[in-house]
Specification:
Two copies of one chain form a homodimer. With 519 residues, chain A is mainly α. In chain A, 64% of the residues lie in helices and 3% in strands.
Chain lengths: 519, 519
């Protein structure tokens, strides 16, 4: 009879909830650190965060959790035998069990000594990376990178998964990703992106306009996105931080930040759109009034899917023609020197190779990622010695983008990821573009059925200020999946086809055409 | 030999530090809740806070802490016998041991059931108090107040201290305070304040000026205080919240808030001065690069001393003549209708009875506190039934201030303290005025010796924009004491005399004279 009441399941849930409470406290400290904390608070904050990290790691690898999970699983199997559960419940519970087993196994496989060494090595890596950047000297960072790679190899040995080393490290970001699948997705891009880049060179670019937008106007424009996209301000708030981010602090507590960058008057607007996309995804995850908030299926399935959501709102919506038409008068009123909405659109959609990933346009962005992906696989899988990284980086930029860094700060020292020992994260950015494009095609088909202009249903929907319909579709088809599926399964389920680069390339081609011919 | 290295002491310190880390995380959540959190985040935040409160209570009442303390004490006694410790170290260590024993005893005496009931009863009390206020009906709140009083009586029984019930409850705010000492301090005020109030009625008040200051200017003025008082922005930050407060999040992380209130253009400026005073005290506590940050002697000794510091900066400095002279042009430029700096000073220093404590001037403020103190002692010590509170409140306002509330919202429902079961807190506000005045006299003597104008050395010091000297004196004489002494001992040590109401009354008298005769 006990089993019928699902008591073991509830006990497991209570345990997970306490872990999630601690995790969300950690997130609150992180938020505060980036939005409010005076700089001298850093070292005590680090101690607070280590204490929580220790508590959370202990909870996630404890025998108590294993016992609770075993009991919940046994109870679930009893209930299954009684055939009294709904099919949806069965699927979700099975998936929760499977993911918890996988997560515990991962946590338990790791030696505490290694966890501590990695944490230390990460902060040392970050510190030396900052120093190397400021002194523009890769050699300052090189020994730390070598140590991080060696510790990551030790981690791979301890995890002992049936995958290559790089694949093992990529799992937390992209579950089930393999190098062969990645090549399958990226190879067409290796060929097509340089060709598109070549085409783009003949676009008559805007003259290099030098213009500014006062910070107050930038704030007004960012807030306008909240209105246009009907963001619920009772649970979503916006602040400023040195680097924009989005974070979830509770089932009804979502935060995001933007920033004002001198000389980049569009940055604040586009970053807000991007972070809102991340936040809207989190807000649509299958919490069902907290039910899954602390459970695996209530969480984001992968970094690529997360990125697909931020990119959708940034590139498909905020960078759309309809949006430029809507915002052109506001920009002009605030002093922007655009004589038409197309001018604004071109400023939002420039195609020009640059050395910096975060400043890259939609077309060249992929090339930045291809370079990083190849290099980190080579670093981890053994082909590339750390000392050869700068030269290799520079030669690939020359060959793929036709430009070359003047120094390592502009080159292989530009991103933070490797300094924190994160390998396997970079592909998610490009996979996000692919997923966004393919999901957008399905969304377009749906909107077309609902009577929106067949030529570009999303554009037509935005034109009618009905972005809420875009969100409804994502809320119905994409967000509620959570970790019920990995990203490949999600795309196949939602779009009916396996993920490929086709939609993305089609989308880029179309955007280039607009750049050529105007509205 | 182990004892020589102070290992047991260090182990105790490590334990206390972990508790302090958790406590400061709690403070961070509180800060975030009041400055950033979207409203829908409240219920999850409450769960985060309960989890931390539970962890902290367990740590503060644990056998492990008791054992660590016993070992540290034994080790300390061994070291004492060897006569190798410095006198200052001996005093501080003894005091730490004494306070820790006292704090643990208090925590351990309380039954967990009672702690939980009290927590629940407090949040119910707060909820019903809000409801009673919004419906302006004391009877909605009365049952909760009765329950809170009954639970507090149970707490007093469990604590079983050699004091009366009200005194026992007042200890966390004012250690060692007794009712007889309180009467000794407050009785002269009961007589003198109404007389001063009578005198003040013949001051020719400013015409009731209706003026506003735009929020931006209010912000600029508040920030000017940071500059004028050389506040270290690398460890102090300012934000906005519905009710101004000051809080410490780490040994180098101090936060404070202000707010803009419609129709009260001086409120933001004065609240900033007040909260800065609290923060400067916390910043001057005997941390000695973290050494005592987690130890009792590193903490504020009482709410009254804390309040004395905020009141000093608010009333002696920001409400000074010199400050009005300095800020008059800025206020006028921002649109304030003052034809002289004295006009501004009068706006800052109005003497007029009102019904609301937080809006009261320095003279009538004391009367508000006398009423609350008498009433809560009567409520706790048995003389006054809860149901008679509103009538009793109103009649005391009539007799002491000559005005009477039209309803309970303007009357006995105005303050939050009792709704959260806090009894014994109110006197600290008035004690703070007394302490501030008496410390200011000593400070004045010191400044006079340093050559400042004998008539009013503090005023003369501010006139020369040398507020840093005021801070230096507090940093030397008052702040480093921490919990090494209680407030009475602190005042006696610093000023050479036992605390009394004399200096405060002298100060008020002097301020009234300025109001009469002008600058």
């Amino acid at each position: 009879m006990l089993a019928l009441h699902g008591l073991a399941w509830k006990r497991l849930g209570a345990y997970l909830k306490e872990s999630q409470l601690l995790g969300s406290i950690q997130n609150t400290l992180y938020w505060d650190q980036n939005t409010s904390m005076p700089c001298a608070g850093a070292s005590w904050r680090a101690e607070q965060l280590s204490l929580l990290a220790k508590q959370i790691h202990e909870r996630q690898s404890s025998d108590q959790l294993q016992d609770l999970l075993n009991a919940a699983k046994a109870e679930f199997e009893q209930l299954l035998a009684l055939e009294e559960l709904q099919p949806k419940t069965i699927i979700e519970k099975k998936r929760n069990i499977q993911l918890l087993e996988q997560d515990i196994k991962r946590q338990k496989s790791l030696d505490t000594g290694l966890v501590v060494s990695l944490a230390k090595s990460k902060s040392k890596g970050y510190e030396l990376w900052q120093k190397a950047r400021s002194e523009n000297d890769f050699q300052i960072f090189a020994p730390a990178l070598k140590e991080l790679i060696s510790l990551r190899h030790e981690e791979v040995r301890q995890l002992c998964e049936p995958r290559t080393a790089w694949e093992t490290l990529a799992q937390p970001f992209e579950p089930d990703l393999t190098i062969s699948r990645l090549n399958n997705l990226f190879d067409p891009l290796r060929k097509a992106l340089p060709q598109l880049l070549d085409q783009s060179r003949s676009i008559k670019n805007n003259p290099t306009l030098s213009w500014e937008l006062d910070p107050l106007s930038q704030g007004v424009l960012a807030n306008q996105l909240f209105e246009d996209w009907s963001i619920d301000r009772s649970k979503t708030c916006l602040s400023q931080s040195p680097h924009p981010f989005s974070i979830t602090l509770g089932p009804c507590d979502f935060r995001l930040t933007n920033r004002v960058v001198d000389g980049q008057p569009l940055s604040c607007f586009l970053a807000t759109a991007h972070e809102l996309g991340h936040s809207l995804y989190e807000q649509g995850l299958p919490c069902e009034s907290h039910q899954w908030f602390a459970w695996p299926v209530g969480q984001a399935t992968s970094m690529a899917v997360h990125e697909s959501q931020s990119l959708f709102w940034e590139n498909r919506v905020a960078r759309s023609r309809a949006f430029s038409k809507r915002f052109w008068p506001i920009f002009v009123k605030a002093g922007a020197p655009f004589s038409s909405s197309f001018d604004l659109w071109r400023a939002m959609n420039r195609f020009k190779p640059c050395l910096n990933r975060v400043e890259a346009d939609e077309l060249t962005y992929g090339l930045h990622i291809l370079i990083r992906t190849d290099l980190e696989i080579a670093l981890i899988e053994g082909g590339l010695p750390v000392d050869d990284l700068p030269a290799e980086w520079n030669s690939r930029y020359k060959s793929l983008l036709g430009i070359q860094p003047n120094n390592d700060r502009e080159g292989c020292l530009q991103d933070v990821h490797w300094s924190e020992g994160q390998f396997g994260y970079f592909p998610s950015y490009l996979l996000g573009h692919l997923i966004s494009a393919q999901l957008s095609e399905s969304m377009s088909n749906h909107l077309q059925e609902d009577g929106f202009d067949a030529d570009d249903p999303i554009e037509s929907c935005i034109n009618k200020r009905q972005e809420s319909l875009l969100l409804s579709w994502l809320r119905k088809e994409v967000h509620p999946i959570g970790r019920n599926m990995n990203s490949d399964e999600l795309v196949e389920t939602v779009t009916g086809s396996s993920l490929s680069s086709e939609s993305f390339l089609k989308y880029l081609d179309r955007k280039l055409k607009i750049a050529f011919k105007g509205f």
